[in-house]
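Handout, page 2. Input:
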Amino acid sequence: MSRFLLPMSALIYLVGSVGYFVYLIKANEAAQKVAYRVMALGFALHTGSVIASTVALGHFPITGLREGLMLFSWAVVGAFLLFQLKVNLKILGAFVSPLAVMLLLLSPLFPPTVALKASVFKSGLLVMHVGLTILGDAVFALAFVGGFMYLVQERQIKNKNFGFFYKRFPSLESLDKLNHHCLVVGFPLLTAGLMLGFLYAGMVWKSYWHWDPKEVLAVATWLIYAVLLHERLAVGWRGRRAAIMAIVGFCAVLATFIGANYFLEGHHSIMGVSSKPWGL
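Output:
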């Protein structure tokens, strides 16, 4: 079932991307409304694929980077659909929909991970660790998009170039609010995910910390967002600096999510067989 639902969801996300492209080019509200509903349909099928994979494997699909990218795509679309109800920045879909398609298309390029002990992946702590971390990363993906649009919009205003993107992109204030909302939601999710990962490692391997490359990068990523949150709340960071930090933070997310799994040797690496599950 999953083999059918996943390609279907990718195809539907692609259709949604076309709809949002039409909205971006022509500012056609009808195209945006259709595209949003199409993305919601794709998300429903994608959710069905995740459930079907869980049933077929007997555990949550978290054993490798291939599955991780599929879950990340699912989480990004879900976060977008929910945030639309809060911030109503329609143009976000023009960036989120192709990102979802790209993640699904990239996933088959990575080799499947050999399952070691199925019982390991049935741990509730491990599932919550991976799930919360991916949800936090997905919210930060929206902040990244918002930060990118902020810098583009700011540059147009400074250059008094009130052209194509100026008319399509939201106001600087709206984009800064998106950054704030994403940080307030994403940081607790990432924090909880990391804490559960360390707790699980301590319970299973009697050590909370292994100096694994992904552990180091994950903590570095957390520190970036912690600084951003502190500076926004305590110092009053807004605008350009917050947008740049959101972009830097998401680059760290990608380095942690993909780089540490595929290019660096460690407990999370998929370059070789490891005795530790991918999610930690």
